[in-house]
Amino acid sequence: MDRLHSLQVFCRVIDRQGFAAAAREMNLSPSVVTRLINDLEAHVGARLINRTTRRLVLTEAGESYLEQVRRILGELEEAENSVRSASHSLSGHLKVLAPSAFATYQLAPLLVGFRRRYPKLTVGLSAPGPVESLDESFDVSLITARGDNIDGGEFVARRLARSHMILCASPAYLARHGRPSAPEELREHEMMVSPLTESMTLQPDRGLEGAKPFQFTPLNAPLSTGQIDITMSATTAGLGIAAMPSYAVAQAIAERRLERVLPGWHLFQISVFAAMPSRKYLPAKTRAFLDFLFEVFPDDDRDPWLTGAR
Fold first, then answer.
1. Is 164-269 the same fold as 92-162+270-307?
2. Is the pTM here over 0.70, yes or no?
3. 114, 131, 165, 206: least buried by Cβ within 10 Å?
4. What class has domain 92-162+270-307?
5. Which of 149, 165, 151, 139 shows the shortest CA–CA distance to 292?
6. 212: left (phi > 0), else alpha (psi -120 to 50), else beta?
7. CA 109 → CA 93, 112, 113, 140, 226, distances in Å?
8. Can you tell me where the transmembrane regions are (predicted)?
C-alpha cells in the first residue's frame, strides 16, 4: 500500500464528502478509492468513516486520525517547498574533472537536466584525457578504471556505472568486408588499435557458456590512437573495426551509424566512479551534483548502455 497516497485520498474523500467526487478530482476510479480507504482502515486497525446513504461521518478514531494526517501532509508540503526553493536558490561554480570520452558522450548531454534543476549553478568541465585518480583542485572527479575497483587514496569514491569495451564498425565497412561470426575471423579485418588494445583478449559475455577467451594481436593496423573521438570518427567513416567503451558508442549504435561486431563478446570492463575529497561535510553544490549523478546512474551491476537502461 502506498501510505502517502492513501492518506491523500482519505483527506480528499472527507473534503468532498464522497468517494465518487474524490475519485473524479484525483482521476481515480471509485473502486480504487474505496479499496484504498479499506486498506487504510485495515492498516490502522480501526474504522475511520461511517458510510450512510447520504453522507460520510468520521468515527471518533477517524476524527483524531484526520487531524494528525492533515498536519503530516502539511509539514510534508512545507518540506518539499523548502527543497524546491533551495534548489532554485543554490548558486556557485562547480569544477568537474572527467575523462574526455565520458564527458563528451554522457556528461555533457546530462547537464541540460542539471541546469534546469539548478539554474543558478554553473559548471566548469575539464576533460583533458583519461582520469585515473582524484584531483583535489576539482569539486568532483569522475574516474574510469578497468575492473570494479580503483586504488585507494585520500578520497571517497562511489561507482556510477559499469561499461564494456566492445568492438564496433560502420555498416558500410561491414557491407564491404563482411560481418565476423567468430573471434578468429577478426584476423581478416582492418583492426584499429589504441594503447589499451594493441593486444586484444576477447571475453565471452554471460550466456555464452563454454566459450573460451580469444587472444590475438592486430597487425598492420590502419590507425593507432589513444583518442576515442578520433577513433569514433574513423570508425564511423568506415576505416575498420575498433574497440570503444559502450558509453561512447551507444548513441551511434542506436542511430545505426555503427554496429556492434561480435555481439556477445567484449574485451574488458570499465567502471566509472565519482570521487571527492575525503571530508565529512560536502558543499551544497557538490552534494547536489553528486545526488544528480547517482539519480541518473543508479549503479546496479549491469552495463546500462548494453542493456538499454540508458
1. yes
2. no
3. 206
4. alpha beta
5. 139
6. beta
7. 18, 6, 8, 17, 23
8. none
Domain spans in the chain, listed from the N-terminal domain onward? 3-88, 92-162+270-307, 164-269
Strand segments (E) across the chain: 49-51, 56-58, 92-97, 121-126, 140-146, 155-169, 200-204, 214-216, 242-245, 259-261, 265-266, 269-277
CATH topology of domain 3-88: Arc Repressor Mutant, subunit A (1.10.10)
- In 212-258, beta strands by DSSP E: 214-216, 242-245
- Find the length of the chain: 310
Q: Burial, 80: exposed, middle or buried (Cβ in 10 Å; 0-12, 13-18, 19+)?
A: exposed
- Distance (Å, rounded) from C-alpha 245 to C-alpha 168? 10
The pLDDT score that the predictor gives to residue 153 is 61
CB contact at 8 A, 231 and 223: yes
Domain at 164-269: CATH architecture: 3-Layer(aba) Sandwich (3.40)
Residues of the chain with pLDDT under 50: none
DSSP assigned state of 91 = -
Predicted local confidence at residue 130, as pLDDT: 85
